[in-house]
Amino acid sequence: MSKRNFILLIIILFIAVVVILGFFYFQKGPTSGGEGNEGTNFISRFNPFGNKKPTIPPPVTPPTDVSGYQPSSPTEEIKLKLKKVSSMPIAGFTVFSKERLKEVVGVTPNPTLALPLTGEGKNSKTTKPTPPLTEFMPALRYVDKATGNIYQTFTDKIEERRFSTTTIPKIYEAYFGAKAESVVMRYLKEDGRTIQTFIGNLPKEYLGADATPDNEIKGSFLPEGIKDLSLSSDSLSIFYLFNVGDNIVGTTLNLSNNKKMQIFDSPFVEWLSFWPNNKMITLTTKPASGISGYMYGIDTNSKNLSKILGGINGLTTLTGPNGRLVLYGNDNLSLNVYHADTKISEPLGVKTLPEKCVWSKAGEAVYCAVPKMIDFGSYPDAWYQGEISFSDQFWKVDIKTGNATIILDPATEVEGEEIDGTKLALEEKENYLFFVNKKDSFLWELKLK
């Protein structure tokens, strides 16, 4: 081999070795030699056969989301403010406070509460079991219009359960008294003309036993032909009007002891009564379009009758809890408040009937079902007779300031639902507003808070 060829061979071999070492270096990547550069050997970086194992890079932790955002589950139930309560048309309802077992989530049983084992002596130390936690929650009772059966449910969790099986067909109206422990049902006898009024006592319930569906309602009948009936503000008594000869007589009845007392007598027989507080009962002449109406108050202690309001066409009224404020309407459905102490009337700026309103517990505001549109007609006759039906929104009106605030439009909450609200009622803490839809007599619940 010539010297020139030998030198070329050496050069080619050197280039091949450099290429191979470079290939393995870039395939392997740099390897950390620990803290800083201690123990790092420059030659070892190019040694593909070194004894050190390749270092696995640590897993990458995704950044923490501190915004608090949580995506909603596609199966999450939409909580509506407005809910239908009854599954049938009803004749009347009440809201009351009812005790129930409190649901406690994630509680670990306490072993010290276990009963002693067989054979353990009297000296064994045991702890008395802790009674279950209970709570009082607002509940509803209502009467099935077709059968007279009573149903009930809690307001925060609608679970309709039948309470009684006593059948009285075609109930026209119903009232619950004595804190929902008695019921008054009104209906027509078979002749289709005579009004029958039945008062029944409801069986007492025991904690955890409210699933009993076959309770029997026992009671008695009031005189036939009672023209009007109202419940006291504490629900412990009723006031009713019935004809005696050519006159009409007003009588109070205590639902707990059945004590009766006549407090009113009049030759004029067309009255509507209301019992706003224990000191007074109001009587308003039955309204008619174009006819002047009058309102009177009966002192329940002295039995004296005094005029409160009058000379208003188509007068309908709803007295506040203190008796000094009267919500009233006329035959053009303008809603006003009358101050009985100052004799001053103030318009509230909304059009509806007092029968479509309820006073707040403090008597400082009213909640009303207000028609979106009022068709031409003779009011309130056309509404009473069912010739005209409304599609309502729900409003709250502050009596002191006159501010009116819309609470809800049912059409936006429940698609396609039109409500003509009547028989409005509030639960004690004013968290819920209840009403009956006059279009079909179903009971509804509106959550306010």
What does the model show?
The structure is a single chain. The chain has 449 residues and is mainly beta. It has three helices and 28 strands. It has helices spanning 3-28, 381-384, 410-413, and strands at 82-84, 90-101, 134-144, 150-154, 161-162, 171-177, 182-188, 195-201, 218-221, 228-231, 237-244, 247-254, 260-266, 271-277, 280-285, 292-299, 305-313, 316-319, 325-329, 334-339, 344-351, 357-359, 365-371, 392-398, 404-408, 421-426, 432-437, 443-447. The strands form seven sheets. Strands 1-28-27-26 form a four-stranded antiparallel beta sheet, with no helix packed on it. Strands 2-3-4-5 form a four-stranded antiparallel beta sheet, with no helix packed on it. A four-stranded antiparallel beta sheet has the order 6-7-8-9, with no helix packed on it. A hairpin with a 5-residue loop joins strand 3 and strand 4 (150-154). The longest helix is centred in the first third of the chain and has 26 residues, at 3-28. 27% of the residues are buried. Mean pLDDT is 84; it is low at 28-57, 59-78 and 111-121.
